[in-house]
């Protein structure tokens, strides 16, 4: 076969058409590009307090062992997770970020014959993992920016092997009720795996609290994914986990790399899980920051979508890209969401009080000039 010297022709159809994930701009990149020194990043929903003291101490303690391979089973972290969430160790899959769990489930269950249902404006990784394995994405229209579970159910066919739900959803911050999700999963055919992506569940409190783990007992096709990247402040270490039936976890663990979690991540995650003080402080700072930002939006006459996460989607009612670029020139990185079919919105991660203030000032200055 002659490929005309074009290596792209050799790649799978899925890889050829894949549009890569566009991450938030790194601080160093903006500093390099614009010669700025005081850049703040409110673009990737990271923890503005950083990692907790216990996680940092655990990393220090693990450093002398770096010549050794990590524990490929993640045994002690899994024990800690099993105890905290009252599940069996056999129900846990550890991933290089929960992102890897999303990829594992796609690789283990999808072929080009299958369809995958998710919502318009849902997390951008779902179309990527679907496309990468050559399966077909079926996008259900959103309802008030959130998931329309009825529309999603209608989109399910005999070919649907996977359904993704993000709750809360990124980038919209919308939250589904637990009763609605439970009913939805119960209505799915048993030929369909349901991924419930709860990357932000720690930020959801009060009456809306998330109790999805109880459903694992009755839904063998349910996979809950969670992460240490957001509320626990360990995004740079890449560690997350899946909770499911032991059978589903067994399948995911078959396809993962033997050492997919590094030893610093395993140690830090285990310590972070016991650091309730840092978690509670994170949640409190987030709640205060959300109030601070939304009050700022009111003062500016701006609208936003109420968010259950550690970020908020601002409705500019004008193109977001020029505002994003003007904010960059002032040293503030936020997230444009045009790829989510939201060209007039910007997603702002909640920062510290000082960062939120700097952002609001930069936004005020920017909007006075566009
Ligand atoms: C951030 C995020 C993730 C993945 O984060 P990891 O760092 O890979 O654990 C997954 N789902 C949603 C909705 C997210 O916003």
What does the model show?
- The protein is α/β, with parallel strands linked by helices and 370 residues long.
- It folds into two domains: 22-50 and 277-367, Aspartate Aminotransferase, domain 1, CATH 3.90.1150; 53-274, Type I PLP-dependent aspartate aminotransferase-like (Major domain) (Aspartate Aminotransferase, domain 2, 3-Layer(aba) Sandwich), CATH 3.40.640.10.
- The protein has 13 helices and 13 strands.
- It has helices at 13-17, 27-34, 53-62, 75-85, 98-109, 125-132, 149-155, 178-187, 246-255, 263-273, 276-299, 320-329, 353-367, and strands at residues 40-41, 92-95, 115-119, 136-140, 160-166, 193-197, 222-227, 240-244, 303-305, 311-315, 332-333, 335-336, 345-349.
- The strands form three sheets. The protein has a seven-stranded mixed sheet with strand order 2-8-7-6-5-3-4, sandwiched between helices. A four-stranded antiparallel sheet has the order 9-10-13-12.
- Helix 8 links the parallel strand 5 and strand 6.
- Helix 5 (98-109) crosses helix 9 (246-255) and helix 11 (276-299) packs parallel to helix 13 (353-367).
- The relative contact order is 0.16.
- The structure holds pyridoxal-5'-phosphate.
- Pyridoxal-5'-phosphate binds next to helix 5.
